[in-house]
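Note to self: keep these together.
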Amino acid sequence: MVQTKKIALYIVVVFVLYTIITSPKEAADLVEIGFEGISTAAQSVGEFMTELIK
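Structure:
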């Protein structure tokens, strides 16, 4: 099972590196979308906690 996880991780890393090397603009766009999603989620959790305290 551990070997399977290592192989899957290596495949993901190779895919990410391949994507960055072959199309850096699209890779940057995907990272931006990811960070926007994380930011929105954190903001939503903050608003929820604020309303919970009120």
